[in-house]
Amino acid sequence: MSSHSATGTPSAETTVLCSATDVTRFTEQVLTAIGLHGDDARDMAAQIMSSELAGHESHGLRRLPEYVQRARGGLADPAATATVDLDTGALTRMDGHGAFGHLVMRDATRLVTERARTHGIAAVAVHNADFAGRLADFCEQAAREGFATLIYVNDSGSGQDVAPPGGLAGRLSTNPIAAGIPRAHSPHLVLDMATSAVALGRMAEEHDRGTAIPPAWASGEVLHPFGGIKGFGLALVAEALAGALTTAGTVSTAPAPERQGVFMIAIHVDAMRPLEDFTAEVERFAAHVKDVPLAKGKPPVRIPGESSAENTRRRQAHGVPIRAFTWRRLDVLAAEFNLSLPNQVMS
Predict the structure, then answer these.
(1) Domains of the chain and any CATH numbers
(2) How far apart are the first and last CA of the chain?
(3) pLDDT tens string 255-303
(4) 184: which DSSP letter?
(5) What phi, psi does 110 have (nearest 5°)?
(6) Which is more confidently placed, 129 or 203?
């Protein structure tokens, strides 16, 4: 019997607190139910939970029903495995065959760091992949192994939700970019951001919360680039590298598949200078940047990656707060797949 409703339905204002272990188990069970198995189900569940633990709920559990629907609708293939369709040594290209982007990017990260270990620097181009979640996980994974990374992403010409500066209609996707820099210890310096003023997932999250969308983010449902022409320029770079260079496709008036293109570069730090020397210098300049007089009421400066790591530590220790609207969606999945919802814990 499913115990999907045994814990009751929270009101709109509440959150449900659950252990990270229980929520990860539930997520993996749902992914297994739609056709992922073994390492694939485990790794994708871990990535979804990484977002939730880090405080980036927009790419966490609230997306689980979406992944179920994409698999059922044929937009993502749970059984697919990415393959290499071009190999020049330091440069490779992977066809995702419609697999979930979480798994394609897992494999792409392994491949590009392996090649960078051999060649000093390497790049992998990904096309025909379903959408991945946050890019931070892949940057962090590579940084732990001593690689600096740069990632550029587009939507293969679909999802034209971002207007050029001054434009009234969408012409680009949110075109995320990410970078990872090894530090002497985790968390590493990891930047992961959309080139739009806000990610679409964050927009959807705010809609679910009933929060008004700031005018700086969007006009209606059309997003603005962040930083005006600066974000717009970065979006164009991402479109060129992730869309044109990878063969994934770029924005135009023609219909485009709901797929993701990715261009990822990895640099083996140790091939340029000893990793310990590099990370020691990173620590020195990071400490200098953080040691700054603060304006009244402002919090201490944090290096990108530190806030997410602190959120993760807190939620692993004290529980994952799941918002009411997300809990209701998990309840539907539990009933559908005859699963038990994660157990609630006392706050």
Answers:
(1) 1-79+319-347 (1.10.1530.10), 83-278 (3.30.1370.60)
(2) 28
(3) 999 999 999 999 999 999 999 999 999 999 999 999 999 999 999 999 9
(4) S
(5) -60, -40
(6) 129
